[in-house]
Amino acid sequence: EDQVTQSPEALRLQEGESSSLNCSYTVSGLRGLFWYRQDPGKGPEFLFTLYSAGEEKEKERLKATLTKKESFLHITAPKPEDSATYLCAVQAGGSEKLVFGKGTKLTVNP
Amino acid sequence: KAGVTQTPRYLIKTRGQQVTLSCSPISGHRSVSWYQQTPGQGLQFLFEYFSETQRNKGNFPGRFSGRQFSNSRSEMNVSTLELGDSALYLCASSLEWGAGEQFFGPGTRLTVL
Question: Is B78 helix (H, G, I), strand (E, B) or coil?
Answer without folding.
Answer: strand
